[in-house]
């Protein structure tokens, strides 16, 4: 979203959030997650600890700000998009839309975040919990849109399969150093989702 579209107060909050997220990722990458103190981070951004905790619940959360950028937009899109056909197709459309709304530096930050997760077990564990929370939120929003119970096993599995396809695309892309940039990630995403029908019928 263009920050200029927001009221002044919200623009200030958004800029503070962005500054904290970008500075944290840089410090965590350069110095290490554990070695970087919260005092160092807030001093670098020139904000108070109170401001930090109004913006992010923890160091792990600020480390995963890039993930939050994507999935917040994704969930907002799911809440308003027209849904026709398979849920997996709707999921892909929503992810593609969310990726299209990321800023020019998002892909680079995402790669740095994945590298941080690989090095820091606490951040990786937090990432997995965040993924679980996002999955539940996606199921709930899709259930509300489709008039289904959120405990519907078919809907839950469709979302879980979609998450697995996203993870496959994202992990192979990051393993290859972000080859092709964001268009390269989108190509892998399309390929992974195209493989879903054959994947669920794989047999010995």
TrEMBL record:
Pfam entry (one): TetR_C_14
Keyword tags: DNA-binding, Transcription, Transcription regulation
Gene Ontology molecular-function annotations: DNA-binding transcription factor activity; transcription cis-regulatory region binding
Protein name: AcrR family transcriptional regulator
DNA-binding region ranges: 37-56
PROSITE patterns in UniProt: HTH_TETR_2
HTH tetR-type domain: residues covered: 14-74
Keyword field contains GTP-binding: no
InterPro entries: Homeodomain-like_sf, HTH-type_TetR-like_transc_reg, HTH_TetR, MftR_C
